[in-house]
Amino acid sequence: MTQPMAPAATLAEGLCASARRIAVPSILLGTFLGNLDASIANVALPTIARDLVADPASTVWVVNAYQLIFAMAVLPLAALGEKLGYRRVFLCGVAGFTLASLGCALAPSLSWLVAARVVQGLCGACMSTIVPALLRMVFPPHMGGRAISLLALTVALSTAAGPSVAAVILTLGDWRWLFAINLPIGLVALGASYRFLPRTPGAERRIDVPGALLNAATLALIIIGLGHVGEAGHHGVAALQIVLGLVVAVVLVRHQRSRQTPMLPLDLMRVPVLALSSLTSVACYMAQTLAYVGMPFLLQHTFARSEAATGLLITPWPLVIVFIAPLAGRLSDRFDSARMSALGLGVFAVGLASLAWLPADASDWGIAWRMVICGVGFGFFQTPNNRIIMMGAPRERSGAASGLMTIARTVGMTLGAAVVALLFDLYGDDGARAAMVSATILAALGGSVSLLRVRAKARAG
């Protein structure tokens, strides 16, 4: 049975409670699918390299290809969602991701696997970019924080479950099952989404092909350049790629300025609160990436913890977000989101500082409760901050706001990975502690920027 087109006025107030209980799990299942796959692929890289007789440097492209195409596709797909309707783009993403997962599971060579991962990255961007806009259509405006908190909860669950799921699958079977597991999940998500999601209306706008190409070139040059930052002997190449990327970015901005509804959300970035929220998000995700990459090295090299113990000690961070996200969502619908996210970043900075300066005789419990503080702080930042971005944009620009949320997270994580690689290159084994100190500083700076939003909102009011 085909789902009828929901009137725009109805969507402006969201769906009724009974319809939401069916539509929301359909949306979040697609999010769980994409995030689970992203978090389990890294674990299998050594096994994939051995099975497909490939060198480690080439095998890393199983991860890099996904991340690169994902970043390049976010803003064009956000614009496409506004034109064609969010439901249609989301369904294409779920269907394509499921089909590409089959391609990954059957891959006879590394080239085949990387090509299938490119398709996964494109379709994963379809799902991740569109989900916040879909949730905004489904929930009434006064429940915006709750909608974003469910998204954060789903991401935290899939991130926390990823390594454990990967470990179980690799213990019991072949690495190909890491991708084959997506097939039943994807089919269920596709069927439920097709059946229960309302048809969202599209908007009259032209597809900006030159803008999409400039966007892709900008991100490809900058991301690849940042990836070379930490490689000895490649600093000159990295600098050239980053500079070329920035030049193309300037051309992209000039091209987008003349458009009424730009693919690059310049109209949203002119709103001080949204601009500051995006910068805060970049800083916070940089800090998170620095900590996620640096902490395992610190635990294993400085505190002599095993790989298994390291995984268990880091787990409280994403796990506590599962419980914090719903609470933060409800509170952000009642209290000022800017102050809440600033408070969260303050707690996050304290947690990071306590990890950066761990005592030499730190116990497992002493490490674990510090991880809990980081998770609490990040959870109280993430949901209110994303609520500001989504609910602060005009409803007809929900796709652009979704893209802004996603690209801020992607840029922050990419910059964080580049900085931690550079720190290891500069400081060797001390790079792990330097990464934790840098993460602390970034979280504190993000909190300061977050407080500026309170002043910006007061001026706007």
Please render the helix and strand layout as text:
Layout: H1 8-12, H2 17-41, H3 45-51, H4 56-59, H5 61-84, H6 86-105, H7 110-138, H8 144-172, H9 177-180, H10 182-196, H11 209-227, H12 235-257, H13 266-269, H14 272-302, H15 307-314, H16 316-332, H17 337-356, H18 364-392, H19 398-427, H20 431-460
Please characterize this protein's 3D structure:
The N terminus is likely disordered. The chain has three domains: 206 residues, MFS general substrate transporter like domains (Growth Hormone, Chain: A), CATH 1.20.1250; 50 residues; 197 residues, MFS general substrate transporter like domains (Growth Hormone, Chain: A, Up-down Bundle), CATH 1.20.1250.20. By secondary structure, it is mostly helical. It starts with 7 loop residues before the first helix and ends with a helix.
CATH architecture heading of the largest domain: Up-down Bundle
Give helix % range. Answer: over 70%
Shape: globular
So, the CATH homologous superfamily of the largest domain? MFS general substrate transporter like domains
Top-tier CATH class of the largest domain = Mainly Alpha
- Uncertain stretches of 5 or more adjacent residues: 1-10
Organism: Pandoraea aquatica
GO molecular function: transmembrane transporter activity
Keywords: Membrane, Transmembrane, Transmembrane helix, Transport
Membrane topology: Multi-pass membrane protein
